[in-house]
Amino acid sequence: MSDKTKKKPQKLKARLPRGFVDREAHDIRAVNEMTAKIREVYERYGFDPVETPLFEYTDALGKFLPDSDRPNEGVFSLQDDDDQWMSLRYDLTAPLARHVAENFNEIQLPYRTYRAGYVFRNEKPGPGRFRQFMQFDADTVGAPGVQADAEMCMMMADTMEALGIARGDYVIRVNNRKVLDGVMEAIGLGGEDNAGQRLNVLRAIDKLDKFGPDGVKLLLGEGRKDESGDFTKGAGLNGEQIEKVLFFVGIEDYAKSAEALASLVAGTAKGGEGVEELNMIGSLAVSAGYDATRIKIDPSVVRGLEYYTGPVFEAELLFDVTNEKGEKVVFGSVGGGGRYDGLVSRFMGQPVPATGFSIGVSRLMTALKNLGKLGADEVVAPVLITVMDGDVDSMGRYQRFTQALRAEGIRAEMYQGNWKKFGNQLKYADRRDCPIAIIQGGDEREKGVVQLKDLIEGKRLSGEIEDNAAWREARVAQVEVAEADLVAKVREILEAHAEDRRRAP
């Protein structure tokens, strides 16, 4: 085969894996800004950071135990060199349970900790559904009393406000797994034999926001037909059962309904205990200054109840946003948690109480962007030191100017491209939104001065000034200063721009 007929090697195609995203500077900074505010609240409550690895042995992740040669349902898994299955963590709670159990003798209980990090779901990606996303968790391990759960709710309320979400725009809703179990038992759906029907009831209750009480009533009974004619089979409860469930999930003023709820679950295994726990959480919250507009006992909260063993809570944002269909909808949940006394115990063979809360960082960031609460401290692009001459002495001077600015905390960079075309340097500065360009050619070098080109003011002037008289009266867009005064003059210009931004409507 001749050289002419040889096929050229194909270029490797650059492809982002499905369900994953590349993060740009503005998103990274927004997340850093947000997590710093969350961290400050958690630290104030006495929580300390801990970090666990991205990988865990698959059996440590609990419900994703290997049941085949490739246990990848829901998790991304691989085998290590001794044939043990490892998986990317699915959440931050199971790794914490493993960490606590493995270090139980060294850990001081109650163990109060927080951590932020990426988790991974091996699920089909779709709009707004990614295979990698960040969570920010706080947990207390070793505290059996519901005061630990109440404090989680208080901390979440404080976190919402620290992020700039006003009172009235959020609420922390609280329910209890024990109460719901008591209601199920009271209507004859206790025990393992009724687990499937209980799950159908939970799913029906979870549609309360979407379909309202009338729609949930149909889903609890024979079923519901939607506008398109599609029929969803119901949980098959009778009228009396439905009435009791709807009473439970329809409680708006808990204080007025607590006695009736206690009567409903009287005689059940855990129902009465659950009501007492909700009463305690409500009392602690009010005593600490958190009224029902901030922390609300709400029996309609059912998400994740199969995972939790006691109180459950959910942070919901109440302001309206426009969805992809152009409809106004309440933003909804940005985090949730509850008591999970069984998770650490799996490793220990003894009871280990635990409670925690997880914030969905990406979802919360979307909410804060809707409210205009992120990016207030916008990062200013670097000052550009242009290059006029390429000899060693000149380059050394340019580098010295750059380092002098950096040493004073000012972002700065020396132009690294083809310096021989000066116009390209200014185009680069424009694309980068650089506020100032520093220029020193041979003439300036001989005089020991530099030119400072105020690029922001220059853009403004070019759009506003129509004659020479106005130009002379305007703030000068280019000034000459002594090398020794370079840093001070740059700072003065940057502070003037910062003041302009603060005054802008």
Automatic annotation (TrEMBL):
PANTHER family: HISTIDINE--TRNA LIGASE, HISTIDYL-TRNA SYNTHETASE. The keyword DNA-binding does not apply. It comes from Rhizobium halophytocola. Homodimer. It catalyses: tRNA(His) + L-histidine + ATP = L-histidyl-tRNA(His) + AMP + diphosphate + H(+). It holds the Pfam family HGTP_anticodon. The gene is hisS. GO terms for molecular function: histidine-tRNA ligase activity. Its EC number is 6.1.1.21. This is Histidine--tRNA ligase. Residues 32-382 form the Aminoacyl-transfer RNA synthetases class-II family profile domain. It is found in: Cytoplasm. Belongs to the class-II aminoacyl-tRNA synthetase family. Keywords: Aminoacyl-tRNA synthetase, ATP-binding, Cytoplasm, Ligase, Nucleotide-binding, Protein biosynthesis. It comes from the Bacteria. SUPFAM superfamilies: Class II aaRS ABD-related, Class II aaRS and biotin synthetases.
